[in-house]
Amino acid sequence: MAARESGRVKEAEKRRILDEAARKRRARKAVEALEQDNFHEDPHADLVMSKKIPKFADSNEKPTRKKKSKSAEYYKMRFRKTFAQLVEEDAAFRPDPPNYLSAQAPPSNFPDRHFCAVCGFPSNYTCIPCGARYCSVRCLGTHLDTRCLKWTA
Amino acid sequence: MSETSCYILDNGAYTVKVGLSSAEPKIVPNCIMKAKSERRRPFIGSQIDECRDASGLFYILPFQKGFLINWDTQKTVWDYIFSKECCPVNFNETALIITEPLYNFASIQEAMTEIFFEEYECQSLLRINATDLAEYHYRKKQNNQCTVVVDSGYSYTYIVPYIKGKKYREGIRRIDVGGKVLTNHLKEILSYRQLNVMDETYVINQVKEDSCFVSQNFMGDMEIAKKKVSENTIVKDYVLPDYTTIRRGYLRDVVKPDEDLEQQTLRLTNERFSIPELLFHPSDVGIPQMGIPEAIIHSINSCPEENKENLLENILLYGGNTLFPGFRDRVYNEVRSMALDHFDVNVTLAENPITYPWEGGKLIFRDPEFYSFCMTKEEYEEEGKTLAFERFDI
Ligand SMILES: [Zn+2]
Ligand SMILES: [Zn+2]
């Protein structure tokens, strides 16, 4: 019974195919990851840093200027805006091209090239369930065992 | 106002190039870093040189997608830079040239004006694009009319045509591939294929710098990189730093297993050239944009007919990515193949691709009209921030 059931699960797994939306989501996530600054946690996150303890750069010596310097925290609050907000604002400030958005290079006129998702060499085959590229039976095996439908975006 | 020197701050998203025009520029990381090995303090800018063990460094950057977003981080780095520890300055006596990204957003521009006049009490300020400084530098040396400036930096690559010293805005092209994308992609593929290095941005960035090159024959190099080790002229091992005996890793030939010195290595084959290749084919990682040579042609084609010939003759490259061996030759060959036969093509790699705009700042300071490009504190107090939008062509 158990064996038959797991066999059935396996069959279902084989027939599972990532739909177009899921493939696009996966591709977008991969591009977004290329923008990330860190992939791990702040190693000092458990320390009580920043606000109460003066940053040592400030404490070493007083600036030569007489005026009291405003803190980094002040400017964080004063100029707080996200990238998305700034792009939106820019559309109002510079509504007509040329502007930030219009400067973006258009798609290439050369055809896309395809590389094996496992080894990076040119590939001729497409994985049916997920659309990833592979170059050989060996790489397909690695792909099915490690990625393919294993993680969903 | 002392006129013997000014302070030049090329404020990049990855490094700041800074110094008095009378001295040599310093290159300072524009970030705060935290190390696993040192829990008592973060490292600001060049303080990272004091860090014994740079494994697992955590980065806090002022820039996101090429724009100054995190002002607390930037203020902390600037305070460090202006202090005795790094590159001290008295803005009461010294004019400041500071660079900003192309199409810098209006509220960031306002913040820049405010912080330098009010917080740092500058007397004279020139806010300018790094590409403007590079173009000025090139024009003073070449005496040419038109230039295409290619700035391939950390956050993106910009292609900016200049006609008679002025940006031709319709021709500006941005490719969203820079050094950060390259390092992150290298991290990703190495982590999947060999060893989890997702936390090792600092080290893998060095792997990239020490190992990668721009291929002149991509499919041919793919064939070579596939061969077995004895016939493979591309495969190398990268010895990783262990921070006891090795502080910076290095590339070496593959050795026989019995000669192995028990060092931790990464085996590099197609990684060596498929990483810089993203600058030429962003679509290889799913970024639907032209590569650099195609975008140069696209940019020039949007310029007035009578300037095209001169633009093709004066293509200038600078920025960290232009340091990859083979970068200039590949750009030249591809632009040559796409340009009309009867036009000459000239591609120049800046003599120092990192500090070329900074050196341009030095030259612009000697321009007889320098102070007319600047805005003074009095002007700021009388006319406010709106004047800055008229004066500076960002
Ligand atoms: Zn493969
Ligand atoms: Zn698959």
UniProtKB/TrEMBL annotation, chain A:
Alphabetical keyword list: Metal-binding, Zinc, Zinc-finger
Span list, region Disordered: 50-70
GO biological process: chromatin remodeling
Cited CDD domains: zf-HIT_ZNHIT1_like
Domain HIT-type, first and last residues per copy: 116-148
Gene Ontology molecular function: zinc ion binding
Pfam family, one: zf-HIT
InterPro entries: Vps71/ZNHIT1, Znf_HIT
Xref: SUPFAM superfamilies: HIT/MYND zinc finger-like (SSF144232)
Gene Ontology cellular component annotations, sorted alphabetically: nucleus
Record protein name field: Zinc finger HIT domain-containing protein 1
Organism, as annotated: Galleria mellonella (Greater wax moth)
TrEMBL record, chain B:
Subcellular localization: Cytoplasm, Cytoskeleton; Nucleus
Top-level taxon of the source organism: Eukaryota
KW Nucleus (keyword) present: yes
GO cellular component terms, semicolon-separated: cytoskeleton; nucleus
SUPFAM superfamilies noted in UniProt: Actin-like ATPase domain
InterPro entries: Actin (IPR004000), ATPase_NBD (IPR043129)
Keywords for the protein's UniProt record, in alphabetical order: Cytoplasm, Cytoskeleton, Nucleus
CDD domains (UniProt xref): ASKHA_NBD_Arp6
Presence of keyword Nucleotide-binding: no
SMART domains referenced in this protein's UniProt entry, alphabetically: ACTIN
Stated family: Belongs to the actin family. ARP6 subfamily.
This protein's name: Actin-related protein 6
Naturally occurring in which organism (per UniProt): Galleria mellonella
